[in-house]
Amino acid sequence: MNDSDPGAGLAGRPKRADARRNQQTLLDAAAAVFVASGVEAPIRDIAAEAGVGTATIYRHFPTRADLIIAVYRHQVEACAEAGPALLAAGATPYAALEQWIDLFVDFLVTKHGLAAALRSDNAQFDALHAYFVDRLVPVCAHLLQAAAAAGEIRAGLEAYELMRGIGNLCIGADGDPAYDPRRLVALLVAGLREPG
């Protein structure tokens, strides 16, 4: 009896880990398709990107709104976790900030489409926006403080203001293929450098 219980427990653990990995794969695929084609992209495109059937996506995310919300939360978490990881990777704090802002721009380009898709449910959208602010502003603040302490950027920059500025530069990127927010964001980030 004791032999069968541990075996049952072990059999259950890999399945849960596999299910988590499968869901992460679906969310990564959906995010990539949303960045390339917008949140209204066909589910079959997401399934193809993930290497699964459409039924698998619907099993995990019964509605498009469920998928959009899951992608939003997944991307917020990935962006939040990336900040400390970039600093720990040994790059200069300014380089870590630049790399993090690139990830943040990827998220924002997707987020604007997600936001438009979720506007019909203002309470849900407001809750997601609060989640976004609560998770990402402290990460940006930490990166700014590290770069300022290293003398690489001006001191006293506010994370929320910087993130709002970057967000404003990203608005409209999905509606105008000639507009490249990355170029303008790169100019903004270069302007943070300490003179001399």
Key features?
196 residues, mainly alpha, Arc Repressor Mutant, subunit A, Tetracycline Repressor, domain 2, 2 domains, Homeodomain-like_sf, transcription regulation, HTH-type_TetR-like_transc_reg, TetR_SbtR-like_C
Structure commentary:
The protein is mainly α and 196 residues long. The chain folds into two domains: 1-62, Orthogonal Bundle (Arc Repressor Mutant, subunit A); 64-196, Orthogonal Bundle (Tetracycline Repressor, domain 2), CATH 1.10.357.10. It has helices spanning 4-37, 43-50, 54-60, 64-88, 93-118, 122-149, 159-170, 181-190. Helix 1 crosses helix 2 (43-50), helix 1 (4-37) crosses helix 4 (64-88) and helix 5 (93-118) packs antiparallel against helix 6. The termini are far apart.
CATH superfamily of the largest domain: Tetracycline Repressor, domain 2
Helix percent band? over 70%
What is the CATH topology descriptor of the largest domain?
Answer: Tetracycline Repressor, domain 2
**Poorly predicted parts:** 1-14
End-to-end distance, in Å?
73 Å
By DSSP, the count of extended strands is 0
Structural class: mainly alpha
CATH architecture of the largest domain: Orthogonal Bundle
SSE arrangement, N to C = HHHHHHHH
How many structural domains are formed by the residues?
2
- Round the Cα radius of gyration to an integer and report it: 20 Å
Average per-residue pLDDT, rounded, comes to: 84
CATH class of the largest domain: Mainly Alpha
SSE arrangement:
Elements: H1 4-37, H2 43-50, H3 54-60, H4 64-88, H5 93-118, H6 122-149, H7 159-170, H8 181-190
Helix pairs in contact: 1-2, 1-4, 4-5, 4-6, 5-6, 5-8
Protein name: TetR/AcrR family transcriptional regulator
Domain HTH tetR-type: 20-79
InterPro entries: Homeodomain-like_sf (IPR009057), HTH-type_TetR-like_transc_reg (IPR050109), HTH_TetR (IPR001647), Tet_transcr_reg_TetR-rel_C_sf (IPR036271), TetR_SbtR-like_C (IPR049445)
